[in-house]
Amino acid sequence: MVVVPDDIPPLGEQYGGLVISRGQEEKEVGILEVEECGGLPLIDLEDLIRGEEGRGGDERKRRECAAAICRASSEWGFFQVVNHGISPELMLKMRREQVKLFQSTFHTKSCCGVLDNSYRWGNPTASSPSQFSWSEAFHIPLAKISHHSCYGDDFTSLREVLMEFAAAVSRLARLLAGILAENLGHPRGVFGNVCNENNAFVRLNRYPACPLSSQMFGLIPHTDSDFLTILLQDQVGGLQLLKDNKWVAVKPNQDALIVNIGDLFQAWSNDFYKSVEHKVMANAKMERYSIAYFLCPSYDSIIGSCKEPSVYKRFTFGEYRTQVQEDVKRIGHKIGLPRFLL
């Protein structure tokens, strides 16, 4: 029997129940081979941002930057960006508000309607330790973040900061998506009507220190079910991605945001851009915070290939989400795009 400590949220209790019910050891969730990732593309957006804002910049550098974004999206599915236009002061304010939110009581987070009842923890569908995530999160639709009723009296300052941060990261996401679309011969605004701010999500993550094992998942291996994701992480580390059939650890860079391609962009690009499996490993001694922005279309938006012959059949974002949820409930993990191959 595995003895687990008390925790708020009661992650240890839930995980311990899985171990007991399945008679499995912690090593089931262990990692195999991990390499330090020294080659993850790092792209400077300064000239690109200056051009978008009408402040000049070097045209040659803008073209080189756009080419680097498209190359990284095809070869890695992940890249880092610096000089991205989101101020360090805003990111620091967002982090302070996030920490304050997660330091509130478990009852406040889970039962008091904070942020439209978007609080999640652990993994209620897990049937084995390998499907369990040692984390808690608020997964918030941007359409809700302006509502005063979502914050109550305790988190009024969070509303203004979250709205400012979401607007800034939305601009960056649309810029990157436009560059990726243009590279495939389409206008930059091709996603403008279907990927407006009301369809996007922000996820505030906390990964508590995990005393059970250094090989515990903070977030189980997965791909993202969106067009692209922008991630602000702290300096603790733990993010790993799959490259050439090996897990590689992404070293934190305090000046950089992480960008990764989602399933919808892989399908729309006919597999030219890659939605890459990634995970977060828990830390035995330190908690970790991150904030993810997900660029999503409306649920009734049809995802088709940007060229023929298509690799995937056409589907709506709503159909895709429903299939993912059904698979997770039935077999414990996401299948994703292979469900929609022609």
From TrEMBL:
It is an enzyme of class 1 (oxidoreductase). Its EC number is 1.14.11.13. One of its GO terms (biological process) is gibberellin metabolic process. It comes from Turnera subulata. Keywords: Dioxygenase, Iron, Metal-binding, Oxidoreductase. One of its GO terms (molecular function) is gibberellin 2-beta-dioxygenase activity. This is gibberellin 2beta-dioxygenase. Residues 198-297 form the Fe2OG dioxygenase domain. InterPro entries: DIOX_N (IPR026992), IPNS-like_FE2OG_OXY (IPR044861), IPNS-like_sf (IPR027443), Iron_ascorbate_oxido_reductase (IPR050231), Oxoglu/Fe-dep_dioxygenase_dom (IPR005123). Belongs to the iron/ascorbate-dependent oxidoreductase family. GA2OX subfamily. It catalyses: gibberellin A1 + 2-oxoglutarate + O2 = gibberellin A8 + succinate + CO2.
